[in-house]
Design brief:
Helix content is 4%, strand content 55%. The protein is built from three helices and 28 strands.
């Protein structure tokens, strides 16, 4: 039975619970991510290998292979290779029905070696990644479903050339249980409960996978997150309502050992931080008319954080040890005057209203999305305690206020000629779609990384990285169009613009992407009965970005690579699909071997962050087979 045609017993397990209409638990800090993005179960055979320094491949590159994976029976296998960096991928996904349930298993292996950029220079990036997943589904009754899921995502020898350290080992574990029930005779329409456990353990250093510098450091980290929720859905008149209660226990500990010239445990970078979170969300949705709809939600978060090792003196010794000999609490007091207050609590109120209007013929939509979303500081922004020489000192601020976003978005979409999607079944030739969005986001108490220069609330002027609240705004707009030129030709174009400003300090926000976009053209035709071939090209581009915050003497210096030049790339691809059972795609990325880098860094900014040049020209081939 095909993945897309499962019985209830054979449907894919639910890996994660539904998110609420307004959910602030996973709001990230501005600029950068701490973890590689998750690749979950059904994406294992089709996801792109992790290469954050380059432009992501367009959806058209994967379309035929995704169709094969979606139509698979009990198994799908994938293999791929890219020449620049000797990137190899092998993946498999299988499932079987067992009575009133099913079992799913997936395995993926990516191996990436250092590559050459467009100037022919070696970039010391690479990793070995093995991702294994197992999930199960059981329906004890027609209206009930219990899903379970476990994952291990293991990186080894992860070279990170734009960061000051490499991860010799990184293991991430994810385990979830989701129960859903639709009561037959009850005021509740649906019930959902879930437990999610997420753990990350890693070792990293600046000596194993790169040339030795003047100071050797080793990082040992353990993060664990346990979250749970209970959700009830019910109807009152014309309103569909949802009430969700959730909780979380988040624990973070990172120690840094000095290897040379000092020796021993030197820093509690995150000194056994513990955060307790509880949230309550009410959401409702209704039809105001046949063409108009309203969705709204309110959310209350209660958050308390503490650092258990804030008074622990690291037992470092040897040459240069004196710069490390300070407790986390002493470090925070010296920069912010905390008076030993390092157990903050927050009560945050967030809300959202979405109004949508459909045209009478259902070919167009307008929407207005207004939201207030409040993010409490993360464990690093509050509790970083990296002492040492001032050039690498990074000090979190326990006194930070939560960051409150007030965002208003408008959007419009219109279809012409009966458009259903490029190459969608029955999509008329000559049909097209255009969509546009624009937003403004006024941020009160934006949490910015900065350099200590004796600003208000900062007691030192030694240039260390500190964290402050400022007022800021973000704005952006996007325009995208799709066009089915003829039965065998399609096109898509996209343009995006973003702007950010630190209003308190009258300077640009750091790590704001430049104007960028892409144009993709694809041709498909029948090569033989039940065999479809495709060829296509993409032009992607970015303007220069000179609105930067790159200077440590007068700003944060978080745009560590400075400004970025504009660039344009050409990619080519071709493929063939043998019905719904096999597909192959090949092509050349960065055909003209352009020497370029992305302006926005994929990793959190730190004193050691620098730019990473993207890969030069690279040929690739990928194939998927289903059974």
């Amino acid at each position: 039975m095909a993945f897309g045609e499962q019985s209830q017993a054979g449907e894919p397990p639910k890996l994660l619970p539904d998110q609420s209409f307004i959910d602030t638990r996973y709001m990230p800090r501005h600029a950068g991510q701490d973890l590689p993005p998750l690749v979950l179960l059904t994406d294992l055979p089709v996801a792109e290998p992790l290469m954050p320094a380059k432009t992501a491949w367009p959806v058209e590159f994967f379309a035929q292979r995704r169709a094969v994976a979606a139509a698979a029976g009990n198994a799908v296998l994938t293999g791929g290779f890219q020449g620049n960096g000797n990137i190899s991928t092998q993946a498999g996904l299988a499932n079987t029905e067992m009575g009133d349930g099913s079992v799913w298993g997936g395995l993926r292996h990516d191996h990436v070696k250092p590559y050459e950029d467009g100037a022919g220079q070696r970039v010391n990036y690479g990793y070995d990644r093995v991702n294994s997943q197992l999930a199960a589904n059981w329906r004890p009754a027609a209206q009930s479903r219990l899903s379970g899921f476990v994952m291990r995502d293991a990186f080894s020898n992860n070279r990170i050339p734009n960061y000051g350290i490499d991860a010799t080992r990184l293991d991430r574990y994810l385990a979830t249980t989701v129960f859903e029930h639709k009561p037959a005779e009850s005021k509740l329409d649906r019930i959902e409960t879930a437990i999610v456990f997420d753990a990350l353990s890693y070792d990293a250093d600046n000596t194993s996978l790169r040339d030795r510098g003047s100071m050797g450091l080793k990082y040992n980290g353990l993060w664990t997150t346990t979250r749970g929720l209970a959700r009830g859905e019910f109807t009152t008149g014309a309103f569909r309502n949802t009430v969700t209660a959730d909780f979380g226990l988040l624990k973070y500990n990172i120690d840094i050992d000095a290897l040379y010239p000092a020796q021993g445990q030197a820093v509690h970078r995150m000194p056994d931080v513990q955060t307790l979170q509880a949230g309550l969300t009410w959401a409702t949705a209704t039809r105001l008319s046949p063409q108009d709809s309203l969705s709204a939600a309110l959310r209350l978060d209660a958050i308390h954080s503490d650092a258990n090792d804030r008074s622990h003196m690291p037992p470092v010794s040897g040459s240069g040890a004196s710069s490390f000999q300070v407790t986390p609490q002493q470090l925070w007091n010296s920069y912010y005057g905390n008076n030993n207050n390092s157990s903050p609590s927050n009560l945050n109120l967030s809300g959202r209203v979405l109004l949508a209007h459909d045209t009478e013929d259902k070919t167009g939509r307008l929407h207005m999305d207004l939201r207030r979303a409040v993010r409490s500081p993360d464990a690093g922004e509050r509790f970083y305690a990296s002492s040492g020489p001032a050039s690498i000192t990074q000090v979190g601020n326990p006194q930070l206020n939560p960051e409150a976003h007030h965002r208003l978005e408008f959007g419009a979409r219109q279809d012409f000629g009966g458009f259903k999607g490029n190459f969608a079944p029955g999509n008329p030739a000559g049909s097209w779609r255009v969509a546009a969005t624009g937003y403004g986001d006024r941020v009160v108490d934006f949490i910015t990384a900065d350099r200590a220069r004796g600003q208000p609330g900062i007691l030192k002027s030694d240039g260390a990285i500190v964290y402050r609240n400022v007022d800021a705004y973000l704005a952006g707009a996007a325009l995208e169009g799709w066009w089915q030129l003829s039965e065998g030709w399609s096109a898509r174009a996209k343009l995006s613009w973003t702007r950010g400003e630190n209003l308190t300090d009258s300077r640009p926000l750091y790590q704001i992407p430049p104007l960028d976009g892409e144009v993709v053209v694809e041709h498909r035709r029948d090569l033989a009965p039940d065999t479809v071939g495709s060829v296509g090209a993409r032009l992607s581009f970015a303007a220069s970005q000179n609105r930067i915050d790159a200077y440590t003497a007068s700003g944060s210096g978080q745009d560590t690579a400075g400004g970025s030049a504009g660039w344009a790339l050409v990619d080519l691809f071709a493929g063939a699909a043998l019905g719904s059972r096999a597909a192959i795609t090949a092509g050349i990325a960065n055909l003209l071997d352009k020497h370029y880098h992305l302006h926005v860094n994929a990793l959190p900014q730190s004193p050691t962050t620098r730019l990473q040049w993207a890969p030069g020209r690279s040929a690739f081939v990928q194939a998927s087979v289903s059974f």
